[in-house]
């Protein structure tokens, strides 16, 4: 019996999110990019050159292409609803970048559209796809270390001083670190803590009037059953928590100690808003400052900063090398083979759904619950109170062995 054919993707948006997925698309033989749209002519031209696919004039043309099975929606947050609904209307399965949406109403519309069309909806990449997170969840679910009692997740980055478009600095349009970054941490701790967050209490930091959106947060997530998670993020670009991850950056590659200072220095070259937008565009796929990555096996797992899961009988620390278990007998690293390409875990889930009809873990309902937590963080900071939740779901569909 011959091997199943690669999954044929159409792409909407070839900006930063697409650029980060490029090593996966270039190296994973289970996928093939056959069509794409981006408003930048340089990106469309680069797509034809690199992938030999069709550069389309509109988003609708990509969704209507009969050679396309899945649509990868990598457009700005505020456009997700229109593009997911468009893909579903054409009978295409959807992989949409996180966050699913910036309102619960829009997220519910996307989930409903895909259900009515009978197509899969997967939301990623969030770092809850990372193998150490999935492995830690399997350990927790196995019960050998008792119940989860507390989760700590911490991340310090240079997020606020990377080049931004105006809407990325406007929370109302999906900008700021809650929608873009908390989605990672919330997804991870929900997966590790059982999914059912009962209430949220949060404070946000807005410390630079030149970047008028939240750049930091701390939140306490209380779970049904008594566990709780503390998540904190600071994107103002001084300290770097990757120093605590063996010098491994978020993408699983070695990172210079002065990376955050370099980021701030580069931004000084952008004299005004237009220059900053141009600087961002030129760093992305098809831009003058873009360099095509060379496909190669990862040196470490991707991560999103220090994460520790405290159970009755052990602490589980997620590292770029695997899950470290610290219990009464000492410390043991449960090393796991690295995936053949970065973010292969995302394609694992797409493959299971598209070729094996296996319901995905990161589906619409799961991701809508993560959006609810993010919105509760914003509401809690504004009201200075705990926010109860009502759209939470459990991670009932755990992945099987990787189908690579």
What do these coordinates show?
The structure is a single chain. Helix 5 (104-117) runs antiparallel to helix 11 and helix 7 (177-193) packs across helix 11 (364-383). The protein folds into two domains: 7-127 and 343-370, NAD(P)-binding Rossmann-like Domain (Rossmann fold, 3-Layer(aba) Sandwich), CATH 3.40.50; 131-340, 2-Layer Sandwich (Dihydrodipicolinate Reductase, domain 2). The chain is 33% helix and 21% strand. The protein has a nine-stranded mixed β-sheet with strand order 14-13-12-11-7-10-9-8-15. By secondary structure, the protein is α/β, with parallel strands linked by helices. Helix 2 (41-51) links the parallel strand 2 (31-37) and strand 3 (54-55).
Which key features would you list for this structure?
404 residues, alpha/beta, Dihydrodipicolinate Reductase, domain 2, 2 domains, nine-stranded mixed beta sheet, six-stranded parallel beta sheet, 11 helices, 33% helix, disordered C terminus
Question: Helices, strands, pairings?
Answer:
Elements: E1 7-12, H1 16-27, E2 31-37, H2 41-51, E3 54-55, H3 59-64, E4 70-73, H4 80-89, E5 93-96, H5 104-117, E6 121-123, H6 131-142, E7 148-156, H7 177-193, E8 197-205, E9 216-223, E10 228-234, H8 259-267, H9 273-283, E11 307-311, E12 315-319, E13 322-327, E14 330-335, H10 344-356, H11 364-383, E15 387-388
Parallel strand pairs: 1-2, 1-4, 2-3, 4-5, 5-6, 7-10
Antiparallel strand pairs: 7-11, 8-9, 8-15, 9-10, 11-12, 12-13, 13-14
